[in-house]
Design brief:
single chain; 445 residues; alpha+beta; Anthranilate synthase; 2 domains; 20 strands; globular
Length: 445
Amino acid sequence: MPEPLSTRVILDRVAPEALFLALEREHSDLFWLDAGADAPEGWSFIGTGVPSSFPGEVRLDAAGGSVGAATDGVPPLRGGWVGWYDYESGARAAGVPAADAAEVPGGAWLRISRLAAFDHATGAVWVAAAEADLDDWEALVTRVAATTMPDDGPALTEAATRRVEARHTPTEYAALIERCRELIRAGIAYQLCLTTRFTVPGVHDGVAVYRRLRSATPAHHGGFIRIGGRSLLSASPEQFLHAGGGVIRTRPIKGTRPRGADAAHDAVLASELAADAKERAENVMIVDLMRNDLSRVCEPGSIRVDALWAVETYPAVHQLVSTVSGTASPGTTAGALFDAAFPAGSMTGAPKLSAMTRLHALEGGPRGIYSGCFGYIGEEGSLDLAMVIRSIVIDGAEAVVGAGGGITWRSMAASEVAEVATKAHAPLAALGAEVPAAWASDILN
């Protein structure tokens, strides 16, 4: 086991983006867990590490661990692991059929060797590294603070012209929606999260693409992780799992509307989302599923619904979000939590095992990293993982964007097709591509 990292706070103000760009030029494996451009609060983490397996042995029941708000000003992450966990690994662990995917079981992870933590509320910057390396790491971060902040990043100099290959046409996807409704009518599932994907062939500059993505759609759980030549770029608005102080929390999103063309239209769309019976039913079914999942690793009687049907607004969409929490049972580990709760109910449907089995037959291919999760697992028992949605995976000479939506009995095919197009629009635009014409005609804005 590597030695714990030593930490200290530095006085210099450092732009996270500047440090990331400096590190990216020198390191093949690195990460940026990004609270968003101009974030007024929260933490961002940038650093490097060495490839590692999934740290399932980390215990999450430590009452002394950071609760996440870090009221004492200390970062909630001071050493541990950063990485992603793919959907098919979770499906196989749950005992349901899974498509063949070129993924290492358990995903890809880095054991942190150097870390910079940015407190957006105060501007404080913490550095962490092995004791013998801490001075050199601090010196590097300080040098970056003295450099000129780079420009806003490379803009696309021409209209989006990259070719996009869709796994399904809108007509095919609509037919799959009707098959989902047939399964619901037969009592086999109550909800199914039906997904598809869009592939953009060609070589992509992942850093330039991520800078465009975060500029267009900043999110509180964005991120860039590159491990072994593969890159995950995300503007995720959904926190899947958080653990700190012995408390485990999940914040499922079910229900989406695009932003309006003006303030009045925008308010109408948000109000419509809050009142939509189908969206509320979809959301509460996943809340009940997540209550059940957390109950497997939490103290009896400790499960709470802290928020139900809250409308949260982001640059591209409105979302319907709920929050469920519980107190970790003694001995609960990250591995036990994944066994209980992954894949996330918001990306499977309910009942989970039945939904996953049927989706395997319907979707026609692997999801891969999309609809998995990414983030950090701290060695002292903290954890913060986001859903891999609104994301791009760059691997070799192609980039992949996944998108989907929850299907219930009340789902209307045209609206669900439009929701997929809305969700895929920003990631594809960051790649210099457009939603295929047949899909784009259904975007609701």
